[in-house]
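[step 3/7] fold_predict: job queued, chain A
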Amino acid sequence: MPITVSNKTIEVVIKFKVRGNLRFLSHAETLKVFQRACARAGIKTAYSQGFNPRPKLSLPLPRSVGVESDDELLCLRLQGRQATDKQSTASEPSFDAERFKARLSGQLPDGFELLSVGVAKAKASFEPSAATYVLAVRREYLNEKLKTRIKHLLARESLNLQRRIDPKSSKFKVRNLKFKEVDVRPFLKSIQLNGRNIVVECKISSAGSIRIDEISELLELDVEKLAEPIRRTRVQWQLSS
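[step 4/7] structure written:
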């Protein structure tokens, strides 16, 4: 039975982890998982208007396929407030974050873990400003060559890469592939070697950021040289309304 109790909408912000094989889900597939979990839990999401209504949920910083994450953010708009088990002194029941979290968690597959649920102001916007990635390197590749490579990258004033631009049309994609040169050095805040882990902090702005595959390319670390999946451990957010 749905747990909405009024026609008003509420902005819910969910932080969650992604682990294991679920790291291979795409951005669209991750949204679909939450959409279906809400439906099974009886949580009524708000929909857009028009001929093809879509549920109002978004991931402000899409995660690269194959990357685990400790700090994902999902923004979700509900069709009403969530009822509490206790009586509220307000004219309407207040949002019960713990009840919402429990009901949604029970419908998510193993590999998704909800960390927190909160309420944001109406029309609030979450903009990422930085992200931290951890690359666990196999011991045989933790050598002076890698340390020298890190120092070399940080000493450079520019790091120009050829970035592929996906064609807008799905037809003849291979034929229409295009590339542009991007200087990714302004987006690299720090690279630190901590034990067997390389910790990379990236800047994110309206001008863009550096991609995780580009970080691996610069460090000359392919999948065979990593002991674990790449993990995004932290995202810094700026809230605007």
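[step 5/7] annotate
Residues 27-41 form the longest helix (15 residues).
DSSP finds four helices and ten strands in the chain.
exit 0
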